[in-house]
Amino acid sequence: MTEIERFLEDKKVRPTAMRILVYKYMAKRQISVALSDIENAFTKAERTTLYRTLKTFEENGIVHQIDDGTGITKYALCEIGCNCEIEQDLHLHFHCNNCQETVCLTAHKIPHINLPEGYLAKDVNLVVKGLCKNCSN
Q: Which residue stretches, if any, does this entry annotate as coiled coil (predicted)?
């Protein structure tokens, strides 16, 4: 059994061939990806299968969604130990206005936000926009 198979099983996800391929693809890219990016990488796979793979990963804490303001949902692999809880695992995202890549800046945590009484946060997303290190040179 490979390391990826063990990881998926630890997350209660059956390690099918497609799930392993999608996980490897995302790990290799190291940036957030849209469903269309994955579809372009796996042209012979059905869109529904790829979408369900991403949803399964999201439901089991393997990926998280990023709304970077482009109108296209992006997905990024969660870091080790992440459980995607608002209280613990918030980090910055950076969207490059030039190359259009969005990356997780997991080393830059967002501090806990104290909302007024009666307010309940369901999702928090902080995206910084500008030029990435490759485009700013």
A: none
Number of C-alpha atoms within 13 angstroms, CB side, residue 21?
12
Burial of 82: CB neighbours in 10 Å, binned 0-12, 13-18, 19+: middle
pLDDT digits (tens, 9 = 90+) for 99-128: 999 998 888 888 878 899 999 888 778 899
Answer yes or no: is 135 a known binding residue: yes
Q: Establish whether 96 is an annotated binding residue.
A: yes
Structure tokens at 118: 């009666």
CA–CA distance, 118 with 104 (Å, rounded to integer): 30
Q: pTM of the predicted model, to two decimals?
A: 0.83
Of 13, 90, 106, the closest CA to residue 57 belongs to 13
User: Is the CATH number 1.10.10.10 carried by domain 3-130?
Assistant: yes
